Amino acid sequence: MEQTQGKARAGGHDTHGPRGGTDGTDARSGTALELLVHGVGGTTPAEMLDDPRTVRITGDHVAAVFRRAEDADAESRPEDYRGRPVPEAYVWCNLTSGNGTRALWLLLLPFMVVNLAHWMRPAAHGRIRTVRLYGLLLRLTGLTLTVLLVAAACEVALDLVAWQCAGTRACAERHSWLGFLSPVVSEGGWWSPPGRRLALAAAVPAALTGLLWYLSLRTWRAYESQQPMEREADAEAGPGRAALGRPGFWYGRRLVARLRAAHTAAGLLTVAAGIGVPAARFDRRPGGPALLDTLGWALQGALVAAAVGVVAVVCRRGRSENRIDRHLDEHLVRRLPLAALLLFVLALLYGGWARPQWTSTGRLSGDAAFGGIALVQGLLVVALAVVAHLLHRSRPDTRTAIRGLGGPAVAMLACALGGVMSGGVAQRVSDWMDGTGTFLDGPPVLLTWQASVIPPLLVVVLLMCAVLARHTLRLARLERDAVERDHPGETGDRGRTRRIALTRALATLTDRAPVLVALTSAATLLLGAGALVGALATDQVPGEAARGTYAVVQGAAQTAQALGSWLIGLGFILFVTWGRRAYKDPSARRTIGILWDVGTFWPRAAHPFAPPCYAERAVPDLTWRMATWTRATGGRLVISGHSQGSVLAAAASWQLEPSARRRVALLTYGSPLERLYGRWFPAHFGPAALASLHEEVDCWRNLYRRTDPIGGPMRLPGDAGPAVDRAPLKDPLTYGRTELHPLPAPILGHSDYQADPAFAEERRHLLARLRPEVPAPRHTDGAAAPVPAADDTVGDC
C-alpha cells in the first residue's frame, strides 16, 4: 500500500543551509524539530534521514526515534541550527512486519476483520445507548467466531478423526497411526471406546484455545502495554472532538483482559460440549445407567450456566476512554477460564467413562451446532445493520461508506471468512481421511452447502470487477483531455498520455471499494441464508410431484458443492503457502506486514484474539516524544507523516495537551485520513473530527496527487478546506524531457512526495509559522497570511 518515507532532504530543501536563516527558530527560542513518520511497509532510518550514519535517540529495537550522528546533541548547540530544523525519524515498521512468524497471523484474519467493523460505527449525536448496543452486537459476533473456529477444530479432531475414521475398519487401516484408537484394529485397546477416543482427540481443540489465549496475552505485553501520558480530558472538548484524543483511548488493557477470559472460556466450553453432549445423549437411552444419566444432565446444566456467564461478561460495558483505566478484573479474568477448564476436565472424565455398548456410527451433533452458529451470526448482522442505520440517520454524511452500513457489511465478511476457513479445513481433512468418499459420512451438511455458495459468489464478484474495469477504461479515456490540459504545449506522445490517464483512473478504484464491499456482503448474506435453508431441507423427502424439480436442484447443488469444495481446498492451500513463503521471503513478509498495518491500527475492542494493535505502542511513543521535547527545549516542531504515518501523526496530535498542540504543525502527504479513514470510520475521522484537528494544531497542510490510490484531500467544510489542502501536485513532474529533467520523469503515485518542490516549500512555510517572534494568527476566511519578509511566505492555515 505504501512505499518508503523517502529522504528528509529531498526536494531541494538544504538542511545545511546558512545560519541565521528565516525558516526556523533562533537560539533564544530553542531549536525547531521535524519529526518524520514513515508509512506502511516501513523503511530504514538512513533512508528517512538521507544519511548512513544514524543513532538511536530513544526507544528500543521494536520502535525508536533516530537522528543523524551529527545531530545527536543538537539541543546543546542551538546556534548551529538557526534557520533549519533538526530532522528526526520515528521508525515503527518492526511493530507489524519485523518477524517472519507473524505471517501465521493470517489465521486470525476473521478476528481482525470483525474488530475493524467495531470501529466503523457511524457518527451520531447523543444516542449513547444505541452506540453501546452497536458495540455489544459486534462483541457477540466476535464471540460466535471464536466458537466457530473451535467448533471447526472439534469437527476435525473429534468427529472426522476420532469418531468416524477411527470407528471404521477401512479408514483406520488406511491410516495406520489410528490403529490404537480403532476397536476393530486394536481388538479392544484401552483407547478404543468412543468416549476415550473423543477425550484424547479433544487435546487438539483445547490446545488451539490455549494457544490463542497465550498469543493474546503475549502480544498484549509486547505491543499494547505502553501507557499513554497522564493528563485530564480536554475541558473544552465539544461534540465534534475526536474520541482518539481521550486519555484512555489507546490503553484497552481492562477490556482485552476481560474479553480474553470470556473467549478462552467459550473455547473450552465448546470442547467440553463436544465430548459431554454425545455421551449424555447415549446415557439417556432407555435402560441406561441412572447415575450416568444424572451426571450427564448435571454436566450439561453446568455447561449452559457457564455459557450464560460468558455471554454476560461479553455483554458488559466495553471500553473506558475518558481516563486511563488501570483496574483489572482480577477475579473474573482468572476464575472464568479456570471454571471452564474445570468443566472441561469433568467432561473428559465423564465422556471417557467406559460404555461397552456405545459404538460410533454416523456423525456427531455438528449439524445442529454449525447451523445454530450460522443462524445467530446472520441475526446479529441484520440487527447490527438496523442499529447502524439508526445512527447514520441521526447524523447523515454523504461521504460515509455504504451510508453507514460499512460495519455490518464488514462483519458479514468476517463471518463468511470464518465459515470458509472452517469449511475448508473440514472438507480437506475429510477428503484426506476418506480418499474414495465411501468410508465416512463426512463433515456436517451445512459446511457442504456453504461450499456450494462459493461458485455463485465468485461469479458475482467477477461481474462486479468486470463492471469496474469497464468504468475505469471509460474514465481513462476521459482523463486524456485532463492530462493535456495539465501539460499545455507538451503533450504529443499518445502512449505516455494513456499511461498517465490510466494511472489516474486506476487511482479512483479506491473510491469505489464501498460498492464492491456492499454488493459482496449482500450476496454473501443471501447465499448464506440459502445454504442454511438447503441444509435444513436436505433430509426432507419431497412429494411425487416435486421429485423431478428436486432432482434438478439437487444435481445443481451437488455440482456447486463439488466445485466449491475444490475452490475451498485451493484457497486453503494458497493461504498456507503464502504464510509459509512469508516466513522465508522478506518481500512476501513485507506484503503481509502491509495488510497488518492497515488492519491492526485499531485497538482490540471486539475480539481479543485479533492481531495486536501497533498504534497502542506507536501513538504513545509519538505523544511522549512531542510533549517532552517541546516542554524541555521550549522549541516548536513539525510532525511530517506519510500515508499511514499521517494517521499516527494525527492520533498523536490529538493526545497532546492543548498548550503543546498549539506548538505543533502538521504536514501530511499521501494521507488516507479522509479518503479511507474518514469514509470507513466516520465516528473517529469524520468531517467534524478532522475540522477539530485543524483548529487545534497550529497549522496543517496536506499534499496529494490525482495518481495516488491511497492519499487524497481532507475535504474540510467551508474555508478550512483550501487552508489545509494544497492543489493536487503534478504527476509526473514533467511530461517530456526538459533542461531540468533530461530523462523521462516517472509517475510517482503514492511514493516520493519529497521529490516535488512543493514539499520543501510547504515545510518551509510551516516552520516559518512557528517562529515565536512573528505572531502567526489563523486565517479561516481564505485570505493570504501576512508575509513577514521576502523569504518568509507563510502558508494559509
Automatic annotation (TrEMBL):
Chain ranges passing through the membrane: 133-153, 198-217, 261-282, 294-315, 336-353, 373-392, 404-426, 446-469, 513-537, 557-579
Protein name: Integral membrane protein
Swiss-Prot/TrEMBL keywords: Membrane, Transmembrane, Transmembrane helix
Record organism: Streptomyces lienomycini
Annotated segments matching region Disordered: 1-29, 774-797
Composition bias, Low complexity: 782-797
Ubl conjugation keyword on record: no
